[in-house]
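Example 3.2
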Amino acid sequence: RQAIEKFEAVIALNATNDPAYDGVARCLVSLRAWDDLAKAIEVRIKATAKASSKTKLLLELAEVHEAKRNDLPAAMEVLLRAEKSDKRNKRVLYELARMSEKKGDVPAAAAYRGELAELTEEPEKKAQIHAAIGEMLSQGDRDPTAARLHFEKAVNFDPKLLSAWEALQVHSERAGNMARAAYALEMRAEQNESPRVKALLYAELAEMREQVLDDPNGAVSAYEKALTFDPTLERAARSVLDVYVKRKDWAKAAPTCELLVHAATRDGDADRAFSLFLLGAKIAEESGHPERAVLAALAGFELKPTSPEARAGLVEAMHAARAFPQEL
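Structure, written as tokens:
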């Protein structure tokens, strides 16, 4: 206490003596005299003319009220004073948003974070702030519409922000707007950097288009994109093989059929493998590869040697191959 009195005597002679104020603060902190510390900071604020210094002191005072005195209303009042005198201070807006959320005033917290986003120059950081607002407003269905608007702002500033696209997809599905959900899912796939994940997302998009949106052409397109990023994705291959055959797109049908033959053989699905061997023979023949047609038909025959279909397929393949003896 004697040290405090000496520092206060210095302050009485020079009200702007920062080292003396710092000395008083250190002593009061060591004594854990938080009420006296709050009063001392108030005195220093009144004696401070520089706006930035005053804001810094107001932030310190708010922290004392919140963390040491457990007086949230007093802390909020001090932060509002700081915001009034320095409206573009990001730290003040951040603390106001945090304090508002702590008090349960979600609309105020969202508004302060929105102001913080306006003052932020970097698009990626703007996006992150809007995404955080959207997440906050989504909890417990506080304000789903406002949440969606903030997620939309987030992807507008940073189209690569996958969490915001995913949130938009979830919001759209809950609202029953499946076309908008499909668009968000497509953006998730497009912006993802992992080929494997891109393939899985495009396959999910294809299923949504096929089963929910009744868009078979869009589904095939999405399955094809999935296969460009992961040629081994069996769920996509199964869905497009018949399409390729109907289109007579033999160049795409051949590797797709081969992939599914290997999968059926691996899984011990003899019936499926048999059907695919016969289809593979047709694809090879149509592609101008009679030797491959014979091999595929022979594999099918070996699986089911008593099958009339297998015998007919093998005979047909061998007959067609005789026109190309140099290739056998």
